[in-house]
Design goal:
single chain; about 425 residues; alpha/beta; eight-stranded mixed beta sheet; 13 helices; globular
């Protein structure tokens, strides 16, 4: 019996499969491109957004460490710069975005001045995140130790997973006096026009963030640069600890910490994230919490700075609303905070969004805090932000335009990449 018809049928099926795959990919690209172009046109006509509330700054003592929560970039930058200008021994500074504007220059110059007076200054900034910034902006004093975090490392071919990831972290540690972490990048835009959250530490828990910085510096920076070994005064089971995603070690614990905390929730979950594109396990954990009577509230931007991420988030609205999960859309500003509080006791502030890039690809750091006074401050901030939100109803969402449904469906495969 001839096998030619079978081979012919196989080739036909393969061609059809390839064409279908190309068609699906082309439709995703077309939808994403259309959204980006439409958003760009709208931005030209969009009135500059002002008037969003500034909840303020909030202090609490956690164990032996004093904490301050910041919700306005101007206040945060003032205290960060004061710490840098007062440094006597060592500065550890890491950021994802570092704009070549007034605020960016102020930080660069303050770090250079510190090095000039004999302070040991270590800087990590992301290469990919700052592609649009002129390389000439990053002019540092000769004594500054600088690591320009590369998008691709030489080990990519031998160990692609270990070589992956950008540094999405925003850290500052000054001497043994102050440490900062949160969502704020460095730039004038973020000082007054974005709503974000950062936290400052003063006390023994500073080690947590010094160690976070050292993990990346010692692993990835040049062998010609000095290593870091922070002194550890931290006890076992501290009420405040840093959780770090380190792709070079294939370590991604932040996702597991979120899943564990959500599974323990008894009364409420208040989650704020700039980009909400959860994997199935996190989505299921939130739904299961709601089904057992937990009040789950999720706050995201009504319009973020990434329109495709917005549309990917909208693909989850139906599943959330059908379980009576409260969906809050923050208005009049980009909310970029990455925070959560659960049951008035457990909180997180840091750099990681609820998406695959943050939870399974990038270098990230969050501060996990188990303390009722700190959680009370987080609740005050969430309530103030809620007053500036529009709540999405199930009825409203069920009547959205069919074209919107089609766009959400077309973009679904992109969830695994973002």
């Amino acid at each position: 019996m001839s096998r030619l018809p079978l081979r012919s049928g196989f080739h036909v099926a393969r061609r059809i499969g390839v064409r279908l795959l190309v068609g699906v990919v082309a439709s995703q690209v077309a939808v994403a491109a259309a959204l980006v172009v439409t958003d760009a046109v709208k931005k030209k006509d969009r009135v500059k957004r002002f008037g969003f509330p500034h909840p303020g700054s909030f202090d609490a003592t956690v164990g032996d460490t004093a904490t301050t929560l910041y919700t306005l970039g101007e206040d945060l930058y003032r205290d960060m710069l004061a710490a840098i200008r007062g440094a006597r021994h060592q500065i550890l500074f890491e950021t994802y975005l570092w704009k070549a504007d007034e605020v960016g220059r102020e930080f660069r110059d303050a770090l250079n001045d510190a090095a000039a007076r004999g302070v040991d200054v270590y800087i990590i900034y992301d290469w990919f995140g700052n592609l649009v910034v002129p390389r000439s902006f990053y002019r540092f004093h000769p004594a500054v130790h600088v690591f320009r975090f590369p998008p691709v490392r030489l080990s990519l071919l031998l160990s692609p997973l270990r070589a992956a990831g950008l540094t999405h972290r925003k850290l500052l540690v000054v001497d043994s006096e102050f440490a900062f972490v949160g969502g704020y990048n460095i730039g004038s835009l973020y000082a007054t026009e974005w709503r974000d959250t950062h936290v400052r530490l003063s006390g023994p828990a500073i080690f947590e963030l010094a160690h976070s910085f050292a993990q990346v510096w010692n692993h990835l920076s040049s062998r010609d640069t000095p290593g870091l070994s922070p002194h550890n005064p931290s006890p076992w089971n501290p009420p405040l600890r840093a959780i770090n995603n380190i792709p070079a070690d294939l370590v991604y614990p932040i996702r597991a910490v979120y899943l564990d905390a959500i599974s323990r929730a008894q009364t409420h979950i208040h989650l704020t994230t700039a980009y909400f594109i959860p994997d199935q396990q996190i989505l299921t954990a939130l739904i299961e919490a709601a089904r057992r009577g937990v009040d789950v509230q999720i706050m995201i931007p009504e319009e973020s700075n990434h329109v495709v991420a917005d549309w990917l988030s909208r693909g989850f609205y139906s599943a959330l609303l059908s379980e009576d999960i409260t969906l809050l859309l923050y208005r009049n500003a980009m909310i970029h905070a990455k925070t959560a509080s659960i049951d008035g006791h457990w909180s997180i502030v840091g750099t990681a969004n609820i998406d695959r890039l943050s939870l399974g690809f990038n270098y990230e750091t969050v501060l996990e805090v188990q303390d009722s006074a700190f959680a009370a401050n987080m609740e005050r901030i969430f309530q103030a932000d809620s007053d500036n939100c529009r709540r999405v109803t199930r009825e409203e969402w069920s009547t959205r335009h069919p074209a919107a449904r089609a766009a959400e469906t077309a973009l679904t495969p992109l969830r695994t990449m973002l």
